[in-house]
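ASSEMBLY PREDICTION REQUEST
Request ID: AP-0331
Submitted by: J.K., bench scientist
Number of chains: three
Total residues: 1178
Priority: normal
Notes: Please return the full assembly, not individual chains.
Input sequences:
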Amino acid sequence: MTATAHAASAPARTDPKVVLEAKGVIMRFGGLVAVDDVDMVVREGEIVGLIGPNGAGKTTFFNCLTGMYKPTEGTVTFEGSVLPPKPRAVVKAGMARTFQNIRLFGNMTALENVMVGRYCRTSAMALTSIVRGPKFRHEEAATRQRAQELLDFVGLGRTTEHLARNLPYGDQRRLEIARALATDPKLLLLDEPTAGMNPKETQETMDLIFKIRDSGLAVVVIEHDMRFIFTLCDRVLCLVRGALLVEGSPATVQSDPRVIEAYIGTGPDAPAPTPTAERPAVSLSKEEQA
Amino acid sequence: MNTSTLPNGARGTTAVTVSRPSMQWYLTLAGVVLLIVGSLLSWCYDEGVLGNVSLNVNPGPIQVFMIVIAVLTLFFLLLRGGLFPVLDRLLDSARALRALGATATAFMVAVVIVIALQTSGLANADPGVFVALVGAALITWGSWSLASDPTVDPVSVHMRGWVDILVIVALLAIVLFGAAYALGQEDGTVFVLFLSVLGGVSLALARSGLFSWIRVIAQRHRQVLMLGAFAVAFLFPFTQNGSDANMSIATQVIIFATTALGLNIVVGLAGLLDLGYIAFLGAGAYVGATLSYSAFATIHWKPPFIVVMIIGACVSATLGLIIGTPTLRVSGDYLAIVTLAFGEIFRLAMFNLDGNNGPNLTRGPNGIPAIPDLEFFGFNFGDTHDIFGIPINRFGNYYFFLLVVAAIIILVFTRLNNSRIGRGWVAIREDEKAAEAMGVNTFGLKLFAFAGGAFLAGLAGTVKAHQDVSVTPDQYVFLESAFLLAAIVLGGMGTVAGVLIGATILKLLPEKLRFVSDYRLLIFGLLLVLIMRFRPEGLVASHRRQLEFHEEDTELAEHVEHAHLEATAGSEGTA
Amino acid sequence: MDLFMQQLVNGVTLGSLYALIAVGYTVVYGIVQLINFAHGEVFMIGAFGALGTWSYLLGESTSIWVLPIMIIGAVAASTGTAVIMERFAYRPLRHAPRLAPLITAIGVSVFLQEAVRLFYPGAKSKLPFPQIDVVTGPAFKLGGVVIQRAALFTVIALVICALLLWLFVNRTKLGRGMLAVSQDPDTARLMGINVDRIIVVAFALGAILAGVAGVAQGLQNSNIDFRIGFLAGLKAFTAAVLGGIGNIEGAVVGGLVLGVVEALVTQYTQYLPFGLSAFGGSSWKDVWTFALLILVLVFRPQGLMGARVVDRA
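STATUS: Completed
Returned structure:
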């Protein structure tokens, strides 16, 4: 699979190979076009930012990528093969995500949460679980060890046995990342990983994301915190009303007047279709709706 | 509640401060002595009241209960006196003493009232009963102002391994003798009084923190506990000396508990409410019946019983798969109704397939009677066999066989729970969408939960057909599903021990409490409501459930969390 | 043709009864997303309330004038039961996990059945229900179609109840409060609506209709027993889901559709080919109803008319 991973559209330059390619993704809910013909390419070892005012369709786009929604039109290609719109297949292929509103398994311990993430990379079935042969025990021990490593990696090594629901907010977000990492992804999708965090926690999260990138993963981040996005990302995409407005380096996007206009909404002909379009550039919003 | 402002008591900051016995301590001790002396004396002239409490030095059953309470009180008093400093860190003696005192007093008051009512006035009461009453009152009074010891910590105190195991063995022995004793009581009043004393003592022990200690021990020595429990269950028939009545109840309890364990996979682990589960037991039973040597069996193929068991389980599992398929689209309350409808369809189908409406498979409302007893290699389950000189009757034979089946099912349950699949189930229960997004095969696991649970129930059903002798549709009504669910809810969802206890209580009490048999269902309904209201996590809560249901109760949350943090004591640092 | 019309009439009669009970499920579900499993028992208690009023207050008179008092007795019994049930069984569980209220509902259901069986004199077996003048007696004949008087009473009762309910929900302050709570209880609370009171009202409304249904059931079948609630409740729930749960109009339509389908299925499955007719007729009709319930829940959980609450995930 890795050998044929060079997608047809990969340019001839010596760019890192393409991990994810979304082409012409359209998502309609009845008459509402939530995602309107968006293209996106993510290359190996890249951190891509996805910004846009509330209601721009960022989370919906994420859901299309990860198979939670079946896009009305368009394809999502991962390492050269088209992904079926099924979350499980997507995870298996190597793409994992976190959620905007944290969705941990609250009544499981931190370790168990991460172990659930190993589900798709392990194979013990009912009979093996009941018989408990050496293979099962080996796999179980490996799962446990890997989960512990990941908890250490995100800095939760000491809260292994805490129930997820009792963890502090910031730790819950990091636990979600650990759980996603447990699926051995090649690409990690983070939906507002710093929402509700204080500056210190935000800084820690940034360090963590860099660390993840350095371990060889590509990362896509949705964020409202512009300073965070522009320091973190190699490339930024700005969605407005479902459509891709600008794509480019942080500097280009930051200085693009259309982006500022989309956020501040002061343009002379700004129709402002969603009531929540007016938003300060730096926000701690938690309740973006698709 | 432990904020009494009295100066005495061991409320030091150091771990163990052996305080000099206070006034209250001696008061309580005096109460213990009086209670024992009083219980050894005659309580009443009339021999016919409360068993027989009319003899000096030869106490009747109720007086024995009081002596047991007194001895327990003495134990906690000595604990408080600093006799066993290690245990003192495990148990809060003041709380236990208070609960014991209250139990004893309430109990003695009840006894006095019963004597007064049954012998028309207190004229027949002997001095002994008043001595005991005063003793009980003294215990209550003395213990009331003893300060609680808030530093009870069952987790970090490590005793030697053999001590732990000894505690487990002692506990199981008490369970065995308690069960044998309770079942041996023919007199309904004495049985009820025994239960209420048991309740009071349990409350006292729970207040003292003994149970959380035992829970920690049980966690450490899980296998010892399981083996021991199995041994106790195995020994039980030998305490019955061939008595039919109790062994019949015991076999019913096992079948019920086994089925409930299967349901526990679906409800307790995967979080799918199944209200038609009895249909799977029924399917197994009907397979067992139609393939049996009964003259009324409708299928004239007689495979060996082991084959019948497998067929029954597979038919059941197939039904489980069918009932499970809607879980692809339906969840929550709607799923509960779907399963309920399936259960009703099963019952109606069994009722209708009598030859007049569709093929004759089940003989309709008449059912399939006269199912012969099982026979393995010439060992007939209907005969009485002597083992070590103790007769083991028909029910005893089935009991042993069912015990093996139950052991298999418990093994399957715990091992599945403790594996990748079990984690997947719990993840589904917690947040199905997130589980799916993390790569868990949610639909497959839900189907497997249904099919697996049904398989186990089918297995139990085939044996039940032979044990019950006949199979009729009215054994498999919705109410039975509700009973199974209640056993799980009462005992504690997702736990093995809880379900076993819940099933035992729900089957045993109605059998022993014959005089309330007409009110059985009324009490059952009320019980369900009350459990959900006051202890929704059940008697034996898995730590998860306990937190889930008492979300706002931070004190409890911390307590449970702490109890769970067994290994990670002493960790600190900034988050 | 007469046979078909006759089955249609039977179906509408049956359906009216289902509809009256179904409204109770739907109103409560619309407000608190709770399947009040014990609602069938509320209906049963309504029937016993009417019988009790008749036996102990009205001196067993069969004059038509006792009917309104019987209905009041039925409604009082059913409403009282429902309100007490809400207060003591369900309200404490308002924020509990979803499993808890459902299990409580089962408990309440068993409790109520047993309470009636044990404490209503003679209720351990079937009890005859009084045959009141005018609403029972010789049937009307329309061509070849027979219309029982009790059937007519049921249908008229449904029409009146549905109209009054519609007026209540859409024209009164309390009714509009109910609509608000069903949309968003938290916001409604912030807007100063007493949500607890609205929930009690929802339970009471359902119980009133169930009480009326209890009287209708008694008049139609001429006897009642403590078990009538379970099956009727389940079928009425089917009707509520069929119409789209949470949707009051839907419950009425769903009840009528279910009744008609049941009547027609009972009649016409007898003519099925290939020996399948053995699976038709009245002994299998409940099986088909439950099958329909399952199919609706699986394939069209929002019902025919669309549910107020669709996403249950």
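REVIEWER COMMENTS: Strands of chain C lie at 127-128, 140-142, 145-147, 223-224.
SIGN-OFF: pending second reviewer
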